[in-house]
């Protein structure tokens, strides 16, 4: 399957990325609000089982074959590897949230664009960032650090003596996210329809995460409130289906290093939604952070000067 690729982001890509990052920021708050009622990894399990069913239905409707017989040789191995990395990423996120705050874990998770920028150009030279683009990546990361700095330095951290474990899990999640991107872009999986790429990821997660939940001794039950059920449906159908399908489509059509930097907006949006939902103050540091993230995105996506 040949997919036409673009070298720079257009208005469609920017609009999709902003919408996805805004929703992912909201989803951070939503997941945290649901953990008290639905155990973390069990919550992820239900989310990806529902998402796998939705993606499978989408593939049938769009005549995207789910059988591996029609795929390029090696795509199945790439798909299973991407799925395993995707499942590992979310296992690290949900387990890590039990040891550290969401803001601390988010800092390390959203280091993923650095890993992409470091790893992907070794396989695809056209994805290499130039000097000002590295500066933009650094500016965006510093902006996120400033936005989350109050939460990381607050007195609540004294009550989390094992925060370092959650931090390491967050870093591992970010690395696995980046490696998933590398696998998708550098293996025969790149020639598979984006919906099928996503099916590998949510399908493997749906198969693996329930066993991890049981191994962790999480309670399983189905007597959830209307809010919890609504949260699970939104996480599955909007988060793990619609937004991730849009992300897979963008990975297939645009440079991964350029779209990845947009994810730095997600934790900033999470803080904004926290302010709107939980009444948390918007500090001058957050305003500066938003400016740095905006500058970083502009620099990373700046077109090179004509030779």
TrEMBL record:
The chain crosses the membrane at residues 12-30, 42-59, 80-99, 105-124, 131-148, 168-186, 198-216, 222-247, 259-278, 284-301. One of its GO terms (cellular component) is membrane. Residues 13-147, 165-301 form the EamA domain. Its main location: membrane. Keywords: Membrane, Transmembrane, Transmembrane helix. It is found in: Membrane. Belongs to the EamA transporter family. This is Drug/metabolite transporter (DMT)-like permease. It comes from Acidovorax soli. The lineage of its organism: Bacteria, Pseudomonadati, Pseudomonadota, Betaproteobacteria, Burkholderiales.
């Amino acid at each position: 399957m040949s997919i036409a690729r673009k070298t720079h982001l257009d208005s469609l890509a920017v609009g999709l990325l902003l919408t996805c990052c805004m929703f992912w920021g909201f989803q951070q708050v939503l997941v945290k609000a649901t953990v008290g009622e639905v155990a973390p990894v069990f919550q992820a399990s239900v989310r990806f089982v529902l998402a796998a069913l939705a993606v499978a239905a989408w593939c049938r409707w769009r005549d995207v074959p789910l059988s591996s017989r029609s795929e390029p040789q090696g795509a199945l191995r790439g798909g299973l590897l991407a799925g395993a990395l995707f499942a590992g990423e979310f296992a690290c996120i949900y387990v890590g949230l039990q040891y550290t705050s969401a803001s601390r874990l988010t800092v390390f998770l959203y280091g993923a664009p650095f890993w992409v920028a470091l790893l992907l150009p070794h396989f695809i030279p056209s994805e290499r960032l130039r000097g000002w683009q590295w500066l933009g990546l650094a500016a965006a990361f510093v902006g996120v650090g400033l936005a989350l700095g109050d939460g990381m330095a607050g007195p609540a951290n004294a009550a989390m003596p094992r925060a370092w474990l959650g931090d390491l899990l967050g870093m591992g999640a970010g690395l696995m996210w980046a490696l998933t991107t590398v696998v998708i872009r550098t293996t025969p999986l790149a020639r598979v329809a984006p919906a099928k790429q996503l099916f590998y990821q949510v399908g493997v997660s749906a198969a693996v995460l329930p066993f991890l939940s049981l191994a962790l001794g999480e309670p399983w039950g189905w007597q959830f409130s209307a809010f919890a059920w609504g949260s699970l449906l939104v996480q599955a159908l909007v988060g793990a289906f619609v937004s991730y399908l849009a992300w897979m489509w963008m990975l297939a059509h645009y440079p991964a290093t350029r779209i990845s930097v947009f994810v730095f907006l997600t934790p900033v949006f999470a803080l904004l939604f926290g302010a709107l939902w939980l009444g948390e103050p918007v500090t001058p540091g957050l305003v500066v952070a938003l400016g740095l993230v905006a500058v970083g995105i502009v620099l990373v996506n700046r077109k090179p000067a004509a030779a």
